[in-house]
Amino acid sequence: MYQSYGETLSHIKARIDDFEPEVGIILGTGLGGLAKEIEVVHQLMYAHIPNFPVSTVEFHSGKLIFGSLNGRKVVAMQGRLHYYEGYSMQEITFPVRIMKLLGISKLFVSNAAGSLNHEIKKGDLMFIEDHINLLPDSPLRGSNNEQFGPRFPDMSEPYNKKLLSQAYEIAKRHKIRVHKGVYVSAPGPSLETRAEYRYMRLIGGDVVGMSTVPEVIVANHMGLPVFAVSVVTDEGFHEDLQPVSLEEIVAVAAAAEPNMTLILKELIALR
Ligand code: HPA
Predict the structure, then answer these.
(1) Which residues of the chain, if any, have pLDDT below 50?
(2) Angle between the N-to-C axes of helices 246-269 and 161-173, in degrees from 0 to 180, rounded to the nearest 10
(3) Nearest CA to ligand 1 atom 10
């Protein structure tokens, strides 16, 4: 595994002409608008990068995009890996390790999520302050590579406080309604039952989704500051649960996306 990082890294470096990304970006399903604003300098298909996991059809067309965004050099993943697709936690987080080895000093993440908290409505944005991992595994399980980080990484500030306050200021300036709260990662792919939404609310969750936590654990392992935002696409209120469809989730994500994109774009530009 460790040898594969070197192989992947030299393959990428040989194809990006000394481009040194400063920040990494992983965008959620239906939330790719920010990637469209990148002035692309290089792009590599995942399928052509050695050791990149590409077993599902969707991921086969994924790309690693290098370019500039609002004055910063970025690397963005177009196409995200989810646990429910069958990848191991190590596979999901392999690209995060690679982005760090390429030189990023911050990671920005977005996702679509269901609300567990009546204050947080469909179409709202929530900055993630903390998380609860309900995936049945950790990307750090197995032998630890000390070159990346410690065996027992601290998780007292998984989401960088400075980035959170900067993002909050940006939202305030643009009069965008935002919340802060706790993201619960569920394995999926089925949505939650009424009893599961109730349980997740009881244990302290504000929203639930099927991504983000593996990447954030690995970023913290490597000491990489993270900012993450959820776009609330549906309401998992156990008292009165309504059926939701993927079409609806995608439509709500699309409607809320411009505000999220605006905040991320300004946040990324700050030093
Ligand atoms: N549950 C889990 N994942 C989700 C949801 C949800 O309600 N909405 C969007 N992603």
Answers:
(1) none
(2) 100
(3) 113
Which pTM does this prediction carry? Answer: 0.95
pLDDT tens-digit map of 84-127: 999 999 999 999 999 999 999 999 999 999 999 999 999 999 99
Pairing relation of β-strands 226-235 and 125-133?
antiparallel
State which amino acid sits at residue 56: T
- The phi and psi torsions of 32 (rounded to 5 degrees) equal -85, 5
CATH number at residue 142: 3.40.50.1580
Tens digit of pLDDT for each residue in 118-130? 999 999 999 999 9
Q: What is the CA radius of gyration of the chain?
A: 18
Which atom, in ligand 1's list, is nearest to the CA of 236?
7
Rounded to the nearest angstrom, the distance between the alpha carbon of 186 and the centre of ligand 1 is: 8
Side chain identity at 165, as an amino acid letter? S
Please give the pLDDT value at position 59. 59
Q: What is the Å distance from ligand 1's center to 175 Cα? A: 26
pLDDT tens per residue across span 190-199:
999 999 999 9
Q: How many CB atoms lie within 10 A of CB 136?
A: 8
Domain that holds residue 99: 2-269
Count of domains in the chain? 1
Q: Which residues line ligand 1 (CB under 6 A)?
A: 112-114, 186, 191-192, 208-210, 233-234, 236, 249
Residue nearest to atom 7 of ligand 1 (CA): 114
The whole-angstrom separation of Cα 267 and Cα 269 is: 5
